[in-house]
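FAQ

Q: What does a record look like?
A: Structure on top, sequence underneath. For example:
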């Protein structure tokens, strides 16, 4: 398979985000009829990255599973210290690509199924009057600009912050850092919105500007603030958000040693990112998801395994 066709198949997985969502929690893709049916939908060969995603057949059980997985993702990110009282994770809605799912304003460690709210891409809650996250515009801005993206994380991880204020660029230096990609741009809110903002992404104009800086990359740093990560599935965005701070930590430690630091080569990054062994429904991916979920105390939300 050529690199080009690998990339295309990857974006197809992303386009059917609900399928990815259905397949990532435990062995859902292997065991559940919903996921099996979803997998039989023929990919559209005419699909291009710039096209908006088209609605595909999905069911309310896909939404239930997506919400459950989003709760798991919240708890994982909290338990792995990627987020604290602040930070959030969203998932494009499985039935309506013009909407996304995101918790109400509550810390990720506390999120329960009833906390998940549906939003329009402009950040308007659908049938919910509870307080939303102030920075929800990060999510809608990225979903609007990137049809291939189905899951977004925003966090303030201390390990990546030095790279948001330094001319030293964050780069992947360890194998699991490869998921951030070769280029991690830095978005400076002051460039377009001046020197009197509170640094928060508080409206759609700022969300769209952040998405422009992200461009086709997987991660963008936000100067003096944090990062936004984008991926075709919830599993992939959680993996990226968990490993990017670890990569940044190792990178900083190596820089302190004073010698020359060797980052991953583009070929190594591509082999890691595009290789088939770590796609969302592979045993290696499911292994990580189950491990993280158990550590976070939400194993009860994972779908049942066969024979149990
Ligand atoms: Mn923030």
């Amino acid at each position: 398979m050529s690199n080009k066709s690998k990339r295309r198949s990857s974006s197809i997985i992303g386009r059917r985000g609900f399928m990815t969502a259905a397949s990532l929690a435990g062995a859902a893709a292997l065991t559940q009829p919903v996921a099996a049916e979803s997998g039989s939908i023929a990919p559209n060969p005419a699909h291009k990255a710039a096209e908006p995603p088209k609605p595909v057949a999905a069911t309310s059980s896909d939404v239930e599973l997506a919400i459950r997985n989003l709760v798991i993702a919240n708890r994982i990110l909290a338990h792995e210290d990627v987020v604290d009282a602040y930070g959030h994770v969203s998932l494009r809605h499985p039935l309506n690509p013009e909407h996304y799912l995101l918790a109400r304003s509550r810390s990720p460690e506390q999120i329960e199924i009833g906390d998940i709210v549906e939003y329009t891409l402009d950040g308007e809650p659908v049938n919910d009057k509870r307080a939303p996250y102030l920075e929800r515009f990060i999510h809608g801005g990225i979903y609007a600009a990137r049809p291939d993206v189905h899951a977004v994380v925003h966090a303030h991880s201390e390990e990546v912050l030095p790279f948001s204020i330094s001319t030293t660029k964050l780069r992947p230096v360890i194998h699991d850092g490869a998921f951030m990609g070769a280029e991690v741009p830095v978005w400076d809110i002051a460039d377009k919105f001046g020197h009197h903002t509170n640094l928060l992404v508080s409206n759609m104009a700022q969300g769209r500007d952040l998405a422009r800086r992200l461009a086709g990359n997987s991660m963008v740093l936000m100067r003096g603030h944090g990062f936004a990560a984008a991926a075709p599935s919830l599993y992939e965005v959680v993996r990226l958000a968990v490993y990017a701070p670890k990569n940044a930590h190792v990178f900083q430690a190596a820089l302190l040693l004073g010698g020359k630091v060797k980052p991953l080569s583009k070929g190594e990054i591509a082999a890691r990112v595009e290789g088939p062994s770590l796609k969302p429904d592979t045993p290696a991916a499911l292994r990580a998801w189950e491990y993280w979920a158990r550590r976070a105390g939400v194993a009860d939300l994972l779908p049942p395994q066969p024979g149990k």
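Q: Is there anything notable about this one?
A: Residues 151 and 305 are 25 Å apart (CA to CA).
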